[in-house]
Structures are given as structure tokens and as C-alpha cells.
Design brief:
By secondary structure, the protein is an alpha/beta fold. The protein contains 16 helices and 15 strands. It has a 7-stranded mixed β-sheet with strand order 3-11-10-9-6-4-5, with helices on both faces. Strands 1-2-13 form a 3-stranded mixed β-sheet. A 3-stranded antiparallel β-sheet has the order 12-15-14.
């Protein structure tokens, strides 16, 4: 066969393949175009509702004062979870640098293969000591800790009783387990008791609640919850992300604040807020539970170990709190200064005495516009709206930090008064 015939014999099948694949490619392009149209419509709906969440760019360390791209001068930050101001504490940062030098940038492994260093075990021990529990297990985030707990602990013969306003990570974690799910009305002890009666035929019963509900800053009635749990043979779990480090006389959290540390069996919390603010979460509780989580908790088994610099920072933060409660105790006066001045000015502030101080506005677009105007006054706050909070409950969530001075707080209040008058929220 000549070279020309050979080439033609090879080209024909290729042409046929290309021709036959054209309809499939067209269908693929059409599917992508249709998906894009659906997504763009959804995005347009979010923009039209005034609930679009833009991300501002910070060009400095996290702290009470930050630099924001597009803004002149230093901006006062009143919306970080940096409750104790430890995110840029010199000793915390240095501990991260030291860990980077001695233990590297990361482990490139999950914990059970070759991802457990002495740093991890040391932090777990200190967190167990801090919470006065038997043992601790670290996760990449508290979202992962919540995702990894309930599926392991509870089976189809068990029941989980969850506050209706629990954090999304708790809700998602409960969805993964096969237990009977009972949802009780927000902080309603009568409804919880009804649900506990309904769950009496279950093998185990677990009451699940946020210690502090982050959108409103309200504190769960743990004394009443523990009373009911003991009456009906249930265990108690709390998520302490917005309490660890600063609530209670020694900053141990909601259970210490309300005097029930020995009556709450399981605590999940985070390293990503008061404890340095980098990343990471954990579970503390009975040692058999922690041992079982190491064997079966999927987020733990299939996620890389926390990077050494993150562990180093968190360890130093916990050490500072174990050594002194002075930082935690400074929070109350600062929080009440803001709440009292804002209430006197005519604003409605949800919650009671927690550093989360939601300025209730109702309308999503109003919350967004006011937050933008606050930035012009040198105050960084963010409007919260659906789906983060229920429709009609939009607000600006202010968060007080131990790093804020009285002058910082007064400047924030003054900016709210000017902005509130502009938008006719107050007179």
C-alpha cells in the first residue's frame, strides 16, 4: 500500500470520530450554558434582595485596628471573633514562628499515618486540662468536629434533641447520624421536656445546644437543660465556639459561667476565635468517646493534621489563659459600655451581656447600606441577613474585643448615631 493510501486510511476513522462526537460536544456546551444561566439568575436574585455578601480586603494583621483596601487610614474593627485580641498577640505570633522553624509548615498526612507530632498531643492535653475533661481530639475546624461527632456516637436506637437555632454545622452533623431527631423550640425548657418524654424508649438520649447562639448573643439555659437531662437520663453536648476563653470567671465557657461544668459531658469548640483565631477545632469529653472518634470520625481520619504553626499559636494562647484570667475578666465592662450607650441612643440591641451585640434593623438592604456608611466613618462592621439569619431579622452584628479601648467603643457608638440618624433608624 502506498504512503498516501495509508494516510487516507488512518484519517477517515479520525474524521468519523470527530463528526460523531460533534452532537455530544454540543449537548455538553448546552448543559454548561444552561447551568450558567441558572446560577446567574440565582446570583441576580441575591443582589436584588440586598443580601449580597461582598468580601472586603484587609491588608494588615487582624486586630482592633486594621487596614482595609480602598479605605484611608486605620479602621476600627468591630466584627471579628477575635474576642481576646490574641490573633496578633506578640507571644502567640512568636509561638507560631517557633513551631514553623522546629516542626515545619505541615505534615502532608492525616493523623493516624504520619501526621501526629508532639505539638498536637501537647495541645490536646492542655485543652483537656483547660476544660477539665478527660481527653481531647483536634480537628481542622469546629465545623469538622461537629460533622464528625454525632455519626460516631449515636445509632438508630438513639435520640438527639437539638435546639432549633443551633449552628449550621451542628445541624449538618446531626443529619449524618441515624439517630431519631427531635428539634425543640429555641431555649424552651418546656418543649425540651416534652421531647425528652417522647425519646424515653431510645437507648441513649443526647441534648445538643450552642452554649452561646452567635447571631443573637443569647446564652443557653444550661442549668435547666442539665436538670432535665438528669431527670430523663440524657447526656448534654454544647458547642462553645462563642464562649471559650472569655465567658465564666476563668474564661472556661458557658458551662463555667452557669456552674455546670461537671454536668455537661461533651464540649466542642474552636481555635479560630478567642484562642488565637488561626484555625482548628476540637472535642473534649470522656476518654472512651475520644478514643472512638480517633478510630471512626471521618473528618479526623480523612483530613490532614493541623499545621504546626497553627498548633503553636493555639498552644500559647491556651497557656496564657491557663496562667491568668485577667484578659477574660476585662470583657464585661467593655461589653456593657457599648450596650448601654447604644440603648441610650435608641438602638435595639439583642442578647444580654455577651460581647456579641446585634444591632437589630430588620431590613437586609438597610443593614448593608448602614455597614457601608460605617466604614466611611472608620468603623468596620458587616450587615447580616438571610440566610445567615431569618428573614426580617437583618442586623449589624457588633463584636467587642478585649483589645478595644473605651475610646474605640465611644467612636463606634458615635458613628452608629450619625449613620442611624441618616437612615432614620433613630431620631
Amino acid at each position: 500500500m502506498s504512503l498516501g493510501k495509508t494516510v487516507r486510511s488512518l484519517v477517515k476513522p479520525v474524521r468519523g470520530l470527530l463528526v460523531s462526537s460533534e452532537p455530544a460536544l454540543k449537548r455538553s456546551y448546552a448543559a454548561v450554558a444552561e447551568a450558567k444561566a441558572v446560577l446567574e439568575h440565582e446570583l441576580d436574585t441575591i443582589r436584588a434582595a440586598g443580601t449580597w455578601k461582598a468580601e472586603r480586603i484587609i491588608t494588615s494583621k487582624q486586630g482592633a485596628q486594621i487596614d482595609v483596601e480602598g479605605s484611608r487610614g486605620s479602621i476600627l474593627n468591630f466584627c471579628a471573633n477575635n474576642y481576646l485580641g490574641l490573633s496578633s498577640h506578640p507571644e502567640v505570633m512568636q509561638a507560631g514562628i517557633d513551631a514553623l522553624k522546629t516542626h515545619g509548615a505541615g505534615l502532608s498526612s492525616v493523623r493516624f499515618i504520619c501526621g501526629t507530632q508532639d505539638l498536637h498531643k501537647n495541645l490536646e492535653q492542655k485543652l483537656a486540662e483547660f476544660h477539665e475533661r478527660e481527653d481531647c481530639i483536634l480537628y481542622a475546624s469546629c465545623f469538622d468536629a461537629n460533622a464528625g461527632l454525632f455519626e460516631v456516637l449515636l445509632g438508630p436506637d438513639d435520640a438527639v434533641l437539638s435546639d432549633e437555632l443551633n449552628h449550621a454545622s451542628i445541624i449538618d452533623g446531626i443529619r449524618l447520624c441515624r439517630a431519631k431527631r427531635l428539634r425543640y423550640k429555641h431555649m424552651d425548657l418546656n418543649d425540651l421536656e416534652d421531647k425528652l418524654k417522647e425519646a424515653q424508649s431510645s437507648r441513649m438520649r443526647l441534648v445538643v445546644t450552642d452554649g452561646v447562639f452567635s447571631m443573637d448573643g443569647d446564652v443557653a439555659p444550661l442549668q435547666g437543660i442539665c436538670d432535665l437531662a438528669e431527670k430523663y437520663g440524657a447526656m448534654v453536648f454544647i458547642d462553645e465556639c462563642h464562649a471559650t476563653g472569655f465567658l465564666g470567671p476563668r474564661g472556661r465557657g458557658t458551662d463555667e459561667l452557669l456552674g455546670v461544668m461537671d454536668r455537661v459531658q461533651i464540649v466542642n469548640s474552636t481555635l479560630g476565635k478567642a484562642l488565637g483565631g488561626a484555625a482548628g477545632g476540637y472535642t473534649v469529653g470522656p476518654k472512651p468517646l475520644i478514643d472512638l472518634l480517633r478510630q471512626r470520625s471521618r473528618p479526623y481520619l480523612f483530613s490532614n493534621a493541623l499545621p504546626p504553626p497553627v498548633v503553636g499559636c493555639a498552644t500559647r494562647a491556651v497557656e496564657l489563659l491557663l496562667a491568668s484570667s485577667e484578659i477574660a475578666q476585662s470583657m464585661t465592662a467593655k461589653t456593657m459600655r457599648f450596650r448601654n450607650k447604644m440603648t441610650q441612643a435608641g438602638f435595639t440591641i439583642a442578647g444580654s451581656s455577651h460581647p456579641i451585640c446585634p444591632v437589630m434593623l430588620g431590613d437586609a438592604r438597610l443593614a448593608s447600606l448602614m455597614a457601608d456608611d460605617m466604614l466611611k466613618h472608620g468603623i468596620y462592621v458587616i450587615g447580616f441577613s438571610y440566610p445567615v439569619v431569618p428573614k426580617g431579622k437583618a442586623r449589624i452584628r457588633v463584636q467587642i474585643s478585649a483589645a478595644h479601648t473605651d475610646d474605640d467603643i465611644d467612636r463606634c457608638v458615635d458613628a452608629f448615631i450619625q449613620t442611624g440618624r441618616k437612615h432614620r433608624v433613630i431620631s
